[in-house]
Fold this sequence. Notes:
The structure holds two protein chains of two kinds.
Chain A: E1 2-9, E2 20-27, H1 35-47, H2 52-63, H3 66-78, H4 83-99, H5 103-112, H6 120-133, H7 137-154, H8 157-173, H9 177-190, H10 197-212, H11 216-231, H12 236-253, H13 256-388, H14 391-422, E3 430-434, H15 435-452, E4 456-459, E5 466-470, H16 471-487, E6 494-503, E7 506-513, H17 520-527, H18 546-557, E8 561-567, E9 571-579
Chain B: E1 2-9, H1 13-25, E2 28-34, H2 37-46, E3 51-55, H3 63-73, E4 81-85, H4 90-97, E5 104-106, H5 111-125, E6 139-141, E7 145-150, E8 153-158, E9 162-168, E10 171-176, E11 180-184, H6 187-193, E12 199-203, E13 206-209, E14 213-217, E15 222-225, E16 229-232
Parallel strand pairs in B: 1-2, 1-3, 3-4, 4-5
Antiparallel strand pairs in B: 1-8, 6-7, 7-8, 9-10, 9-13, 10-11, 12-13, 14-15, 15-16
Amino acid sequence: MFLYDTMMTQKAHNFLLTFLFLPLFIFSQQEKGANYFEVAIQKKVRSLKSKNNFNKAQYFFFKEEWDSTLVYSMKQLNSNIDIETKQYCHYFRGYSLRKKGLYKQSSIEFGFINKSFQYYYLVDNNIGLLFYYEKKFNEAIIYFLKAEKEILENKDESEITDIYTNIGICYLHLNQYAKAESYLKKDVLLNPKQITKSVVRSNINIANFYYEQYKDLQAISYFKKAYKLSKNIKDFNLKQTTAFNMAVVEENRGDYKKALEYRKEAEDLKDSLNNQNKIWAVADFEKKFAVAQKQKQIKVLQVENKLKNTERNSLFFAAIGLLLILTGGVYLYGQKVKNAKTILLQKNKLDELNATKDQLFSIVSHDLRSSVNALKTSNSKLSATLETKNYDELNRLIIRNSTIANGAYSLLDNLLHWAMLQTKQLYFHKESIHLYSIIQQIEYNYKPLLLDKAITFENSVSKNIFIYVDLDSLKIVLRNLLDNAIKFSNENGKISFYTQETNPDFSDLIIQDNGIGMSHETIKELLTDSELLAKKSNSEIIGTGLGLQLCKQMIKKNSGTLNIESEINKGTKMILTFPKTRTNG
Amino acid sequence: MDNINVLIIEDTQEQSDALIKVLAENNYTITGVATNFTDALKLFYENTIDIIIIDVFLDGKPDGITFAESINIIPNASKPFVFLTSSQDRQIFERAKLTKPFSFLMKPFNELEILYAIEMAVEKFYAQTNVFMSEEQDTVISNDFLFIKKKNSLKKVAINDILYIEVEERYCNIITEKEKFVIQISLTKISNLLDKTKFVKTHRNTIVNRDKIEEIILADNLIILKGDHKINLSDTYKDFLKKMNILS
């Protein structure tokens, strides 16, 4: 906060041509001088709590950040505020602008403040300084003198010192030595209470003042005083100046020995100043280094944090991934178990089907083969008989041949249909069927067989019954059942087909014979729902079981049911149920 | 009453012979036997055919179906037909099924089966199912013919030949210029199935072929038809006269 007004004076009697630096110190505003002003502003801030900008403006003002102060004070000025706050703001701006060296603008800002402002003398003081900077010492003195009165009233010592110094220096510049002397003396006299830089400076000033006027004795005493006082302060610059001044003075007096000593001291002080500067620089550097270190540490910490974060994230994702894998694993395991189950089921089914196929082959290889073989032997017998021209025997053989051929054919037919049913290749087309006619058609083919066994056949199915089934599968079923009935009938037996109405939507067809019948176990075995063919019983007459198996499946496919009622040696009732054709009016 | 004309499309002579024998025994007239697709078309267009029996496979190709398909595209040309097949091949059936109405007969078949199949084909073709086998009815009516079941066979009567129909309960007396016979069909059904512009009710139980009317004697309430058949005209049914172009 000091301004050096360095005056280079070359004294006329300075025969050694030494340059004497005689700094004149002027005070703009002491650092501690305006304590009460700061308190006043803090008070003002508290009273204006809501005015954020003012608060910021004053904060930056005391922080000496002039640009920010300018910005926030301008903002505060732009909002509607009372005159006092306005004046504070203008003061902030004026002061800040002065500090920034923009004297004209500063002067304008100070001009906005009117005399009602409580600390108007500060304004005067500032304006005085502005004039001083512009070397308009006369005007400066006017303002300083204005301020002086008020400052004296305030009794703030440092302020008084400052104003005395300022006025004194101005007079000095104007060469009004008497006035200058009185002010500078006042300044010096005020000082001794506390040895501060300003005291030293005051002494230097007055010494300079006398030295200028060649009043060497007085000057020397003040120089000495300044030199002595400077021992008690820490400012190396001042110490050096005082020592240097002493050296010049002694030189001028011709006491070179002392001058040399003072010079040396000044040099030492300069060195220590340099040292101090160096120390400062080192300290500064260290500080910077420490800051850099800290920055580095911060960076390291940041990086560590980042690493931690990424680690945590990766852990989190890994956990999620593991969870997913786990659920996936569980799911897959479940699927595998399910698949295994399905495979097992399929395997069982395949085994069953394979067994069926094997059975099929055994039927083909045994039954069909034996049938055809029988036909073959019968044929050779036939040709042998033809030679003997035994026509009765011939006729008998032919009938037998045709019976065998018919049996083989129906077996083959069943096999074919059964195979087609298993491979789902069978064409299936439901339509309205006249049951009576179909039974007649089936019976037509069995007429020779019936005649052969002298079996009475009766078709008492109602001629008005139409069932809704697939014709060919129905024919297969009826053919097989009639074939069985004939097979298991005794000679002179009776086979009858008739219907029974038990349900309006279904028709029961009963095929009854009075043949050998069968046991309950056999019935149970026959009706067991399995893909496998029923085991062949020991009796040759039982047959393959293929026919009935086929019937069951065909009936099922036609949405019908099969029931068997039988008594051994009394006969069998095959009860078939088929859906009727729905009559649409 | 005339016999039904049957066209047989069958490449195995043995089987066509068997068919001819069965059909002839049951009073069907065999119009011809075609052994291939071209012959079949030729015979079909050259003759009056009532029913066609088609073997699905001709020379190992499913030309039978092709034939059915070709006669099906021409409107009003198609006739009832029965497919004969020894194969239950699903693919063939799926194709044959598209030629509606579709009836088929598995080989080998016996006499009863072929007759039944023919009757079914006629029923399905004229969309009057469950007729021949039922006890209430024995006649299917097409645009040009009455198909009447007589014993095991089918007969036909040209509708244009009918003079008038007399209804007695569930029976109808059909009177043509040459003959007179009884069919089994209800009055409502027959009057629904006959062309109403051609056949008019002249009495509660009499339907007259308008083309056969020679004279109407209003004074006596009498209608005189071709062949000097005299029919009563009831007052309730006189309305039809208004629609006639009366020559003064």
